[in-house]
Write a structure and sequence with these properties.
This protein is of the alpha+beta class and about 600 residues long. Helices cover about 40% and strands about 20% of the residues. The chain contains 18 helices and 18 strands. Strands 1, 2, 3, 4, 5, 6, 7, 8 and 9 form a 9-stranded mixed sheet that branches. A hairpin with a 3-residue loop joins strand 15 and strand 16.
């Protein structure tokens, strides 16, 4: 088995699939485009959903890339040796080209020939079937033909070996996961791939999107079948290097060395301190990637900015536990930049923004900590009057919710003054707060990746008309900073230094509606990015020079690089109405609008 670095694995994977007729595409932004269901790009397939759903990709039917991803569901679990918020995902796709036979063969060849993994250490899982979809014997037979014996092929249910659909309806299908036997003893007679004991390590997943789920819950096979695969770089490198944790690999080692130097501690000697080191290392890496993204956002109290603020403040809290002095975040950020300068050049391009925002947020949170300590001191005289030496959960949560004061610091101050904290009461208050927040988030992000209905398609086209109209009314400095479409409305963020006047809003509305009434044709062409720009197409996103792109032209009014989908002509879109124009962030305005039938 080859002991590869992350950079080596990334290159070997891309080179292998390019040799198999795949075209390398550039990974997308961490901030999803027109997807109301998630805050961040969560997997390599995420930006390719329109093409999996049927749109033609300009680079063809065989694609490969490496994609930066963030998953926020396990933030509170980060600190153990395994969980990460940011990670890189390797992937290859077939969009209506090859299917199970070839995909499995490619996976086996890469694992055993390129990575030189001993085939005797490989086990696989396949879908065992249910009342609606049959057992995946095709995948199982292919694995057998390649040399995986029947006793190392495990049939599992939907919870383990089924993907999708992303929404209520759409493409979905069984998957086949590949596992390496780590050599650890089995936890019992029923130990098998998927067991949490650590004997089996999942290294890759092939998803076979051959079915479409209908609104009535039935499934039918699609003529145009797709393959989506995913291999996590950090976890794969750890197993190839024989490491027990991703934090022991070269991806994290330089960051951890920086933390050791700043704190004066030695990683690996005290597990409580190690937890803090891992939290700081993960959170600074993730923060740098969010800030340095092509569509980088600043810390705030909403959306992606809220997650970023939460990560930064959690890192600061644990730095304080290790007695790391203020000003540490930029120092560690420089290490992250040096590690990823080559595969992600946008980080270096946005380094000034990264350092400025980290320094601002660090200074602001230290002020928060001071205010929280003062507030605690104000409460203390009244607390001392009571007989019970317990700070209520409600009081602790108020310090947390109102002043951003971490529960750990409340406990620390309480202990210094002879008090304990009602941790259970705090957790109940916190849980109630989370449920309210989650309920709000479900309303905010209702919709789905698979929601390419007539209405959302029309709203997507309307964003192009809106973009062009804004540039005509306000000036060519206007550029798209983000958009979000649900079945109810569109949201469009754009660069502009001040609030629009009522007259400007009316002029933009009228311009858009005029184009709708003109019943303009919407045409699509594939060309290089260079050609697109030379023809006057707007292209506000990252891309490699010369990479093929799709350009949507709406009559003589709009020409823009986009992945689709769009209406074929504007006449049936409905009446465009701007509901609200407001500030989104410094120098960025936000419009919410609808199409009325």
């Amino acid at each position: 088995m080859k002991k590869l670095t992350a950079n080596e694995l990334r290159k070997l994977y891309i080179d292998f699939f390019v040799s198999k007729g795949h075209k390398q595409i550039r990974g997308a932004s961490l901030i999803p485009e027109n997807d109301p269901t998630v805050l961040f790009t969560t997997a390599g397939m995420h930006p390719l959903v329109p093409y999996i759903l049927g749109a033609e990709h300009p680079e063809g039917k065989r694609l490969t890339d490496y994609q930066k991803c963030i998953r926020t569901g396990d933030i509170d679990s980060v600190g153990d040796p395994h969980h990460l918020t940011f990670f890189e995902m390797l992937g290859n796709w077939s969009l209506g080209d090859y299917f199970k036979q070839e995909a499995i063969s490619y996976s086996y060849e890469f694992l055993t020939k390129v990575l030189e993994i001993d085939p005797s250490r490989l086990s696989v899982t396949v879908f065992r079937g249910d009342d609606t979809v049959p057992r995946d014997e095709v995948a199982a037979e292919r694995w057998k033909a390649l040399g995986i014996p029947e006793e190392r092929i495990f049939y599992k249910g939907r919870e383990d070996n089924w993907w999708g659909p992303a929404g209520e309806t759409g493409p979905c299908g069984p998957d086949s996961e590949m596992f390496i036997d780590t050599g650890r003893p089995a936890c019992g007679p029923d130990c098998q791939p998927g067991c949490s004991c650590g004997k089996y390590f999942e290294i890759w997943n092939d998803v076979f999107m051959g079915y479409k789920k209908e609104a009535d819950g039935t499934y039918h096979e699609m003529e145009r079948k797709c393959v989506d695969t995913g291999m996590g770089i950090e976890r794969t490198v750890a197993i190839l290097q024989g490491k027990k944790s991703v934090y022991e690999t070269e991806v994290f080692a330089p960051i951890i060395s920086g933390i050791e130097e700043l704190s004066g501690i030695k990683y690996g000697e005290d597990e409580d301190k190690d937890v803090s080191v891992r939290i700081i290392a993960d959170h600074i890496r993730t923060s740098v990637f969010i800030l340095g993204d092509q569509k980088g956002v600043a810390p705030s109290n909403v959306g992606q900015g809220y997650i970023l603020r939460r990560l930064i403040r959690r890192a600061i809290r644990h730095a304080r536990k290790l007695n790391i002095p203020q000003g540490f975040m930029s120092k560690l950020a420089k290490i992250v930049l040096s590690l990823y300068a080559e595969p992600y050049p946008e980080l270096a391009e946005n380094k000034d923004f990264i350092f400025t925002e980290l320094e601002k947020e660090e200074e602001k949170f230290y002020d928060t900590l001071i205010k929280g300590e003062r507030e605690f001191d104000k409460m203390l005289p009244n607390l001392m009057k009571g007989n019970a030496r317990v700070i209520s959960g409600r009081t602790a949560f108020k310090l947390y919710d109102t002043y951003g004061f971490p529960i750990e610091l409340t406990e620390e101050l309480a202990k210094e003054n002879g008090f304990t904290v009602d941790k259970k009461g705090f957790e109940e208050a916190f849980k109630k707060h989370q449920e309210l927040s989650r309920s709000g988030a479900e309303q905010q992000f209702k919709g789905g990746l698979a929601d390419h209905s007539e209405l959302t398609t029309a709203l997507h086209t309307a964003t192009h008309l809106l973009h062009a109209a804004l540039r005509k009314v306000l000036g060519t400095h206007v550029g798209q900073k983000g958009s979000n479409i649900t079945a109810e409305r569109l949201r469009f963020d754009f660069t502009h230094p001040e609030a629009m006047t009522k007259e400007q809003i009316k002029e933009v509305e009228d311009l858009v509606n005029e184009q709708i009434k003109r019943d303009l044709p919407v045409t699509v062409k594939t060309m290089t990015l260079d050609q697109a720009r030379s023809e006057g197409a707007i292209a506000f996103f990252d891309s490699k020079y010369g990479e093929l792109v799709t350009v949507y032209t709406i009559g003589d009014f709009s020409k823009e690089v986009c992945g689709g989908p769009h209406v074929t002509h504007t006449g049936d879109m409905g009446h465009f109405k701007i509901l609200k124009e407001q500030s989104s962030s410094a120098g960025v305005r936000r419009i919410k609008a609808v199409l009325e039938k």
